[in-house]
Amino acid sequence: MVCRLENLGVAVDTGDFPQTTAARRLIVSHDGQGETPPGLFMFESPPTRREEGVFAHLPKFRTTLDIWFENQKALDLAFVKVKRFIALAKAHRGHLLQDYLLQQAKEGADVVQEK
């Protein structure tokens, strides 16, 4: 299953790790609506479905994916890159809609000019 980059968040686990290991964890979270999380993501807590008559209410859910790295340097590099890609996806949200509306406006202007 595919998930949209704009629904993702990323954080570094700042928990206390034993001094005997250099392993560090990157936590990727997905916020969504629905009962099935994207592949590899796991529920923090299962969503509760509330039914009111013929309607069903399912609140937004958060699923997470833990990625372990062998040291802090590898974690920092991955965190910066993943955070950048997510930020770019969020920044470009709506560009396709804007381009479509501009195209429709131009086509509408051409039709008006032909008459």
Describe the structure.
The protein is α+β, with helices and mostly antiparallel strands. It is built from two helices and six strands, in the order ββββββαα. The strands form two sheets. It has a four-stranded antiparallel β-sheet with strand order 1-2-6-3. Strand 4 (50-52) and strand 5 (55-57) form a beta hairpin. The longest helix has 20 residues, at 72-91. Residues 111-115 have low confidence and may be disordered.
Low-confidence stretches: 111-115
* Average residue-wise pLDDT: 79
Structural class: alpha+beta
Radius of gyration (Å)? 21 Å
Q: Give the beta-strand count.
A: 6
Count the DSSP helices: 2
How far apart are the termini? 48 Å
What is the beta-strand fraction?
A: 25-35%
Fraction of residues in H or I helices: 25-40%
Task: Describe the sheet with the most strands.
Answer: 4 strands, antiparallel
User: What does the overall shape look like?
Assistant: flat
